[in-house]
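As the next step, I selected for study one protein, both as residues and as discrete backbone shape codes, as given directly below:
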Amino acid sequence: MPKKIAIIGAGPAGLTAAYLLGKANENVTVFEKDPHYVGGISRTETYKGYHFDIGGHRFFSKSKEVEDFWTEILGDEMLERPRSSRIYYNKKFFSYPLVAFEALTKLGVWESGLCVLSYMRAKLFPVKNPTNFEDWVVNQFGRRLFNIFFKTYTEKVWGIPCKEISADWAAQRIKGLSLSSAIWNAVFKAKPTSKDQVIKTLIDSFRYPKMGPGMMWEVCTLKSKKMGVQVEMNCAVKDIQLNNTTWTVHTSDNRIFDGFDYVLSTAPMRELVTSVTPTFPQQAFDSAKHLEYRDFLTVVLICKDEDAFHDNWIYIHDPSVKVGRIQNFKSWSPYMVPDPEMACYGLEYFCFEGDGLWTSSDADLIALATKEINQIGLTHPEAVVDGYVVRQPKAYPVYDQTYKEKVNDVREALKAYPGLYLIGRNGMHKYNNQDHSMMTAMLAAKNIIAGKEIYDLWDVNEDAEYHEGGERGAEELKKVGGRMVPQKKN
């Protein structure tokens, strides 16, 4: 008899689970609060025929299973794209990843020498057991490079001092990269056969759906529906209730769906925990309530194409402007811009829901973006012909100094709620990439299909190095001793 599964959220994790469970002939219902778009933060929005991401989403993974999933959904509709990104600092553009001699020239011999001395000092006198982002990065790069290439941008993204950000963030996002490894990769490019040594931050190419990442999840939704998966749009989940061994879902439009054997939630952990009956134990409940999120908005500028720049994106490390990153959607895929004479840029502003940036009018935000892209020197105000604003709440789960303890409280309490799985970025309060989220969904689906707990979803980030980088498909996950570890191919 098919198992009955509710999935909260039609993002990469939710739809991956829905597709795989539908393929296994399970009874699946997906609840998505957005009235139009699937894909969550990996959706592609449209305006007057222009397509744009909510942040850039590279399709690159060391998990062959994830890569095969993407191919199964879109096949030839996936483009192979070159990675091109730069850092803007002190009115200069630096290639990213670092090109050693270019950086030396642009920083100047004196500044570069001071950076090397700072790096050497950090190696001789490192901070023992660094617990915050600042100390971790200083250990890897030296304080001078930290101040130049990390501090301003990171504090733009998170809105808090680097000392208040957990070292987990740095260890997860830039694992294996240091000044010496960056220079080595700049001077001696990794050979194609070096499968296990390519650092995630340094990959040179990636796949990308021709009409943006949302195309992946729109097609996945259509294929899931053909297998019998029910997708309820404009249908937020208000609360869920455990009745002995089955679950009941109450939606925002006052409908009741019951008899679910499992609930897979990609909703923000803070929201999910407070919506469950029976109520979570007080400590876990309070911990979930105090988890923090960072929001952001994208100001899309449609411009006459002046061939201003060809990067996929540029990190803005200059504190004189508020913008944190600039996307060039035409460089992600030329199919996303309907008129070849035009360009489409996305200026990303990191903020908190309700603050001054978030509540600014669209017209004011478009004016700000136009002013700042001109100040940076990427295009002229006269080239801007139209604009559009997208606000994205809870884009990033915050890795503050206490997040891990709070999440662990929730994880412990989950043991009393059989059939409830938290998956994906916000569901697990893990700032992970799209392939991470998908892998948690894949493992949850495998557990459900098997009818027993084979895999521990929470181990994906800790042990699955496919996330941190390397040649696509070079490693697969293997269950070893109760933990997920990379399996190297010969």
